[in-house]
Amino acid sequence: MHHAMPRGGRRRLLALLATVAATAVVLTGCASGGSGAAVKQELVIGSQMASLPSLDTGAITSAGYEGQRLIGNLVYEGLTKRDVSDPTKPAGVGAALAKSWDISSDGLSYTFHLQKNVTFTDGTKFDASAVIYNIHRYMDKNDPHYDPKLITYYAVLAYVQDVKKVDDSTVTFTLNKPFAFFLADLYNVYFASPTSLDKFGSAGQAKKPVGTGPFIFDSETPNQSISFVKNQKYWGVVPKLDRITVDLIPDPAARTAALRSGRVDWIEAAQPDDFTSLKAAGFATTGNSFDWEWSWQLMTQEKPFNDIRVRQAMNFAIDRDAIAKDLLHGTATPAYQMMAPASLYYDKANNIYNYDPAKAKQLLADAGYSGGIDITVGYITSGSGSMQAKAMDEALQAQLAKVNIRVTLAPVDFSGMYAKLGAGNTGWQAANQAFSLEQPSSWGWTLQCGSSLFGYCNKGFDDLRSQALVTTDDAARAKLLTEAGSLQTKDAGWMYVVNDTAPRAMSASVKGYVQPKSWWIDFNNVSMG
């Protein structure tokens, strides 16, 4: 019934019948523990996602950070979370299902003190036994609900040697070696109801997830939309919103049209060209610098990018200021190095590239390519963090052509990008995607020797990162990672383009939202006014 009428029509019906009790039957969440009152506060979000992921814990990450932000973090929780309480600072580590923790002096033992009086939305108690049940499910290949896909999204668990129950509200994780980012990386090791898993298995969790989160899964129309209702029994701050619906609208122009028409209240990755007119029409626009790198990842083991001079030429050939200011109207900042200015590991001294076409041509000539080069670049058309990929890549294509770097663009969807990279032999010389560098522990697939999908390898970089992963002192760890970023920038491992500010546009009715310096969003204080 939720999708039986256009969005605007449903809203008019709600306004007309808000006091009629019968609407509770039609419009409230049907999941266990859902709201029993008529929906008065609904937020409808226009998402970049082109398809919906499996709803089973870690598998949600296959839709990127947008999948975590708009699906996973509504239904599930981890022991920790991203702390975005201060919008002027990068995200830190906050307490979630664990209210506090103690760390042994050798960094090998983490004892978590769990929140009390927490239940999954099917009524199952969340306690130490539930923690152990889920961790064993992820790690034990003999567990009846083990799924090898899930552990691929939980690299942090590779550091776990054992987990034991101390009492009902206390668990101790023993690590096989120190890991400085253990607390930070637990944020999306989600916990599912043991009762639900025993009854319905992994397949059931993928279709009707049961977690402890502030919202409860309500309904899904495959690859069109997904809805959640407020968890009235939530252990923390109960959301002000009664319902969140996420509509999949991968086309940016269609998202803007949906916002203008009232079909949605909020759009991800708003088109910069529309900001002025949206503001004039009374819509709100938001953005904040954060650690998000939009770049071209160069295949450094293949011609022509196995020559550092060609990689450097790429970085001198592009006008980042024009992309950030003219094309994106200030919704991004130019990127002159691996680290974004909002990163904890940024050092302005590493801004070593500028717009210098003559230097780019000379570097190409020095490398034996006086006639230029021909390359193919695969790029993600839409999805988590892709920004305005088509327009940006076409602008870069035109800039590079001025120095005889002839680019063929190969569009691919979000899942297709990673399928091709994983299979290898893409036929590309570079790939364009965007990602956060907030988690250094996850840099391996992009930057580590032998693991990088793009062939990047610098033993010095690997050594610095390896040291950082076991360095518990914040300042010392940051220094190591800053040095690592300097090496990668000097290598010109990527063509650095811009850092995103996550531009969003929303109805003036959306209240209580403050944009953090992170991809993470806390919806619990958002309301419709």
Please supply descriptive tags for the structure shown above.
alpha+beta, 6-stranded mixed β-sheet, 7-stranded mixed β-sheet, 31% helix, 17 helices, 529 residues
Question: Your description of this structure?
Answer:
With 529 residues, the chain is α+β, with helices and mostly antiparallel strands. The strands form 5 sheets. A 7-stranded mixed beta sheet has the order 8-9-10-1-11-19-12, with helices on both faces.
SSE diagram, text form:
Layout: H1 7-17, H2 23-27, E1 42-47, H3 64-75, E2 80-83, E3 92-95, E4 98-103, E5 109-114, H4 128-139, H5 148-151, E6 160-167, E7 170-175, H6 182-185, H7 194-207, E8 215-221, E9 225-230, E10 243-248, H8 252-261, E11 266-267, H9 275-280, E12 284-286, E13 292-298, H10 308-317, H11 320-327, E14 332-334, H12 357-366, E15 373-380, H13 389-401, E16 405-412, H14 414-423, E17 430-436, H15 444-447, H16 459-469, H17 474-491, E18 494-500, E19 504-506, E20 510-511, E21 527-528
